[in-house]
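Supplementary notes for students who missed Thursday's class. We covered one full example, reproduced here. Read the sequence, then the structure, then the short commentary at the end.
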Amino acid sequence: MSAPLDKLLRDARIDLVLSRIEKDSAIINEVINYLDSDIRSVKFNSIIVLGEIGEKSSSAIPKLINRLNDSDWSICREAARSLGKIGKVAENAVPDLTKLLDNKEESIRKEAAIALGRIGTTTENSISRLCGALEDKNEDIRAAVAKACGEIGADAYSAIPALMKSLKDVSWAVRTAAAEAISKIGRGTIKTIPSLIEALEDDDWRVRFRVVNTLAEIGEESIPSLLRVLTHENPIVRKEALEALGEIKKADPQIIEDIAKLLFDKKEIVRGKAADALRSIGKESIPALIEAYDKSKFNMKIIIVSSIGGIGLEAKTAIPFLTNILKTPEQEIENISTFDDMIKRPVITFLKDPFSSKAKQRVEAARALGKIGLDSEEAVSALELALNDTKDRVRREAALSLGKLGSSSRSAVQSLIRTLHDKNRDVRWRASEALGLIGVKAEDVISNLNLLVHDKCDYVCESAINALDSLTEEEHKYY
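Structure (token representation):
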């Protein structure tokens, strides 16, 4: 025989009560009646159950509102919490919940704020009181109030001035919640742009992250203010403004020009973020990136090339620029594995590029071509030539990119076969991988990959086997 409902409530067996309600919704009314119980645990757990079933307990709202005035503070708190869980249909509770924002018990004030946000229906008085609660002495309550304003949405428009003030709160959690609330309110957020711009100086990255997202959500209306602070004395502000502009992705010539100026900023973090923003804007930024390349220092050149590659297939107009970076006269000379050649080539390479700065640029150019060079004979030809580069890392990246281009790289198959015998294991690895991805099932491809199965490097062997598996459907024995 199953236990009586009141015993389950007294023993806090919420799970069993909810299980019974699932089988018989009429039990909801029994639970509602227990809200008047003289036994505290029965009353307390009845409130919890009604909150858990949400809108199904809408008929309990009047009694739950009465419990908001209970002399037991914990009963009052749970009633507020359950009314919030019931949601919008509990709008009649808004006036009483609003009064609780001044309750001396902190947990009650917090749950009242959360409930008002979940219900989402407001009155002029409730918004006014929520604004006042943004100055509560407890930071958790202030954060909950700010979040509630955001959940209410456009109807909380009059709270925007108070939320703007909260952007300077001593608590990062409150500042973050305030910025998020402003973005959610939506209507009239243009008026908050100056305060959001000011908040870009916040010491906490979490707040700045939320503010940047908010400005990006506002969209084009925030662009003029963001452009103005690109010359701000604080590099953090410049960086965050670039982040927002990158997210907005407005491909306007003036915006691109202003962002491009920061490719030469004195702070590396700003220069990098400017490149990121131009990459996000897309193909319209390519001329500005290319123009900045020649005027930039070594590290920035690599970042610019990487940004062009990050634009993807839409950056095809940059292929001639990238192939020009990748190509060198030395690549025209066949790399012969003789003793003299093994000594001569590294020496000449060192004399021409002692710090490998140009080689690093070629690596990035090869990598970028692998992202944008699909169906481009020019890109494939440059990458094929780079398989004979004097630097291992360039040959490796060229082979990797040829593989990424797949069947577009069919014309480079013979060069890749020769590269299977490269002295560098990473180059052999990427070359075998590329042949598997390109998918040419020629006899010389298969035979040379079979030779590589016995390579002294384990991962080169594995790559060769994988390539053979992808090129043939029948099983092979490797001798």
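Commentary. The chain has 29 helices and no strands. The longest helix spans residues 357-372. If anything here is unclear, bring it to office hours.
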